[in-house]
Design a protein that fits this description.
It is a single chain. By secondary structure, the protein is an all-alpha fold. The chain has four helices and no strands. The model has no long low-confidence stretch (mean pLDDT about 80).
C-alpha cells in the first residue's frame, strides 16, 4: 500500500465517520419527533394534585341517584279464553254470498272436463265496519255530535250494526 492510498483511505474513513454521526443525529431527531407526536402526554396529573377538582361542583353537590324500586313479579298466569270470539259473534246476523261461474265457463282449461267445487271460504264480516267506511268520508267534522252518531250503541245506526252498551 502506498501513502496516497493510505491518505485516501483516511479521508474516506473521516467522511464515513462524519456521515455516521449525521445519521445518528437524524435518527435521534426522528425518534424525538415521534415521541413528541405519539409519546406519553405531559398532561397527566398526580392523584394528589387537586387543581383539576376545582370545577366539579356539579358532581360533588349532585344528589345520589335513588335506587330503583323493586319490580313486582306476577305469581299467576292467565289462560287465554278460548271460544270467546264465537260467543261475541253468535248474535250477529250471517250473510251468505255465493259466487258461481256461468255454465259455459265451468270447463277446465287444461283437460276440457267440467269443474267442481274445491273449497269454500267462510268469512265473517261485521256490518259496522263497512258502514263506517261509507259514512266517515262524508262526515261533517264541524258537527260536535257527528261522531256520537257512529258509536255502536247509537240509535241512528242500522239495527245490523248496533251493539249493546
Amino acid at each position: 500500500m502506498t501513502i496516497e492510498e493510505l491518505q485516501k483511505r483516511c479521508v474516506v474513513n473521516g467522511q464515513n465517520a462524519k456521515l455516521t454521526a449525521k445519521l445518528n443525529w437524524f435518527m435521534e431527531q426522528f425518534r424525538l419527533s415521534k415521541h413528541r407526536q405519539f409519546g406519553v402526554s405531559s398532561e397527566r396529573t398526580a392523584p394528589e394534585q387537586q387543581q383539576l377538582f376545582l370545577f366539579n361542583e356539579t358532581e360533588v353537590e349532585a344528589q345520589p341517584v335513588p335506587a330503583e324500586p323493586t319490580v313486582e313479579t306476577i305469581t299467576y298466569q292467565r289462560r287465554k279464553q278460548r271460544g270467546h270470539r264465537e260467543t261475541v259473534l253468535e248474535n250477529l246476523p250471517v250473510e251468505t254470498v255465493e259466487y258461481r261461474l256461468p255454465v259455459e265457463e265451468q270447463v277446465c282449461s287444461c283437460y276440457g272436463g267440467p269443474l267442481h267445487e274445491t273449497s269454500t271460504e267462510v268469512r265473517q264480516e261485521l256490518q259496522i265496519i263497512s258502514y263506517l267506511f261509507e259514512k266517515l268520508p262524508n262526515l261533517d267534522t264541524k258537527d260536535e255530535n257527528a261522531f256520537d252518531k257512529l258509536l255502536p250503541w247509537s240509535e241512528s245506526l242500522p239495527l245490523v250494526c248496533r251493539g249493546s252498551k
